[in-house]
Every structure is written in C-alpha cells, then in structure tokens.
Amino acid sequence: MRPGRRHPRREAPAGLRLHVQLAGTFPPVWRRIEVASDLGLDDLHEVLQVVFGWEDYHLYRFTTGPERDPGDAFACTADLREAYDDDPAVPTWDVRIDELLAEPGERLHYQYDYGDNWWLVIEVEDVTDGRVPPGRAVLLEGAGAGPPEDCGGTYGYRMIVAASDPTHPDHAQGLADVAELWGDEVAQQDLGLVAFDAASVGERLRALELAGRPPTPRHVGEQLTGLMLRARDSATARQLRMLASSADAGVDVDEATAARMVRPFTVLCDAVGDGVKLTGAGYLPPAVVQTIFDELEMGDEWIGKGNREDLTVPVLQLRETAQRLKLLRKYKGRLVPTARGRELAGDPVGLWWHLAGALPFGGRDAKDAEWQAGVLLLALMASGSTDNAEVTVAELLTGLGWAVGDRQPIDRRTATGLIATDVHLLHRVGAFADDRRGAWPGTVTPDGIALARAALADQRP
Question: What gap in Å lies between CA 71 and CA 41, rounded to an integer?
Fold first, then answer.
C-alpha cells in the first residue's frame, strides 16, 4: 500500500454517513452527509465545497490527523505542483474515500485555504453495505452559516457572525471590528455569510453529476501522473482521470501476439544478422533492403523497387527506429546488433515489453510537448477510443498549459505533427487498424490497447 492507505478498496460500493464539523467555530458549524464509498478524495472535496458554501478558490488537502499532528497527507494537484520536493503528499485523484474511511468512528481531516486555514473534521457515523445514496452524495442535515471566502479564518468568521446577528451578545463589538477593518460603509448583507439552506445545497450537489464521473484509478502510472500534475482546469483533470482509470488495467501478452507485433524488428534484425557493411553513404546494402521490403510486404504502402534505403522510407524509418530502441548500432562502417538486441533475439515477449518501455517514442523528455502528446495518445489507445485522437490531444495539451503563437490553443494540425512519430511506429506494429474511411490515426486494435497499457504501466517484467 502507498503511504497513508489503511484499507483495501471495497469490492462493492457502500454508503458512508459522515458527520463533518468546522473546527474552531461556536455555535458549531456542521453538516451530516451520505456519500458513496468509491468516490475519490477529489470528489469529496467538491462535495465539501458545496455543503459549506465555498467557491473552490484555494488549495486543499486531506490528512489522517488534525492540524497539529496531520499524519499522512493527500493533496490537490495545485498543492503538489507548488510543494517542496520532500513533500510526501499523495494526489487526491489517486485515492478513494473507502481507503481512508471504512468503519464507524474513523476520522479524516480536510484543510482548505492555507491562509484562512479552515479545518474540517470528518467522522464516519455509519456504513451501509450494498447501497449508495441517490446521486452518490446527499445532504442529510446541518447547522450554522458557512464562512465567507477570505474572511480571515475563525477570528474573522466569529467577528462576521456577531456583526450579522443583532441578537448576538457580541453584536456591537462585531460591528465595531468590521468597521475598523473594512469601513463603516460595509452593510450587514455584504458581510458574505453563506446561510445554511438545505434545498440550495441539494441542488448544487445534484449539479455535480457525481454519478457520471469516471472511477478513481487503482493506480496512476508515472507518465500520466506527470501530466495530471500539470492540469490547469478541472475539465482537463477529470478527462485525464478518466483515461488513467482505463490505463491501469492489468496487462498480459502471449507469445503469438508479441511475435506478430514485433515482427518488423525481427525481420530487420534477422536480415542484419551478425552485422552488415553499410554503403559509402551510410545506408543498408540493396540486397538487405530488398529482403526487408519484400518480407514485410511494404510494396502495399510504398512505390518503388524497394532496394535503395535512401529511396525506401519505410525501411529507413524501421532501421532508424531499431537504432533508437538500441537493438542495432553503427560500428566502423557496419550495422551490428547491440548486446540488448542479441539478448532479445528469439524472445518476442521480451522484445514486446522492450518496445512498450520505450514509448512514447517522440520527444526528448517529459517536459517536451511531443513526449506529452505521445503519452496522451497512449492514454487514448488504452481507453480503446482513438476517434479524432488529434483533436482530443490538442484540447488536452491546451489544458496542460501548452499554446501556439500568441498564446493560442493547440490546434489539430499542431497535435497531428506532435504525435506523428508515435503513430507511424504504432501503425508498423499493428496497433492501429487500416481505416477505409481515411480517418487518422485509425481505430486502435486490441493489440494496440494492450501495448498502450503496458507502455503506461510502472512495473514491467
């Protein structure tokens, strides 16, 4: 288990009745809610924002302990982006409620707005197996007006409560304090208290449409984690979570499937054998080019005799890809197998996993737009849906903070160029089916889904 996770996820969702109280307030401000146990902590954050009347302006995190002894932390994306390198927090989108709250009496703490420093104490009152509330979250009851955003924490809240209530014993002092801070012209109705209105809260909870949200992934791999931490808006974050929930399925590949997919590299390496002398211009000799061209039936995609590598782009690209995969290398005017290439000869499953581990193929590193576009393409493949992939990749790249020109959103043409290297390689190994409609990159195949999921997995054989 990752740090702070105390329970395995329930096989079937349950209903959790939670009592939530705002620390440091009197009279007490509290809400009683019922939520589905399989919601993510990021979903619970949105529920808490609604029931206390906040507007989601600030950072937040959940902790297993209270303010002075917080224990393990589970933080929002923006918090994690700004945290120091040694911050041990786990992303909220990677954790379900039932991993932290499973039995009556268990508690979780929620910190919102590190300036005003609001703390909610969340306690399980009851667990109903096999039943989740309508809409996956409902308000049962509550009391106390919600604190306004940026009111100065519990001190400011108590002052505003006193100033807003003529019957409050400290009403006069509250008015004086408000006048000193914000001026005599501030009217009581402008103090910003969020009156507790159960009907209004219920409507806002239904508007969250929690029932239609993607499930919380069992685990988000390192490549997608890097992108999810860059998300600049909730729509992008939610779509990435949906893709991550598809990508975390288990992966297994049989020898026949692996052999079929890596055959282009097997044919190339067999043709090279223990090594071949390159031409004076550094290309494969014509006889070797012709062998590869014929065995892989490249005549269906390329016009020409297929015996000159400089004029036969599919063979040239395949050879260059094999070199980038460190299966082949140039040595003293010859193309020879590497130690890794010799090791994987005759091992199609091992070669398949080696290929998966090298994806995405485009881009220099994780900070490169082409690399990130490749990860997004793999995530779409892992979900089984690549229709208009370049459009979706463009939208997600924009949501990750990329732009073209004068801060314009990423367009379809730009996204197409960014994923072209990976699409070409993936087509070569059968990850996409030829689409008679001419759609690009094409429909992802079952083999392609498995390869993409393997590429996005953290652990490989």
Answer: 16
> Rounded to whole angstroms, how far apart are CA atoms 348 and 351?
5
**Beta bridge partners of residue 118, listed in sequence order:** 112
Q: Do 134 and 38 touch, CB atoms closer than 8 A?
A: no
The pLDDT tens digits for 30-50 are 999 999 999 999 999 999 999
Residue from 451, 371, 379, 458 nearest 418 by CA: 371
Fold of 255-354: Arc Repressor Mutant, subunit A (1.10.10)
CATH superfamily placement of domain 14-147+194-216:
MM3350-like (3.10.290.30)
Mean pLDDT, the chain, integer:
91
Rounded to whole angstroms, the Cα distance separating 371 from 369 reads: 5
**C-alpha distances out from residue 181 to 24, 174, 177, Å:** 21, 11, 6
DSSP 3-state of 108: strand
Q: Where are the domains of the chain?
A: 14-147+194-216, 255-354, 359-456
Confidence (pTM): 0.85
DSSP secondary structure letters along 126-174: EEEET---GGGEEEEEEESPBPPTTS-HHHHHHHHHHHH-TTSTTHHHH
Alpha-carbon gap, residue 194 to 55, rounded angstroms: 11
φ, ψ for residue 14, nearest 5 deg: -125, 170
For 175, phi then psi, to 5°, come to -60, -40
Return the DSSP state at 277.
Answer: E
Rounded CA-CA distance 283/286 in Å is 9
Pairing of strands 328-331, 443-444: unpaired
CA dist 136 and 416 (Å) reads 39
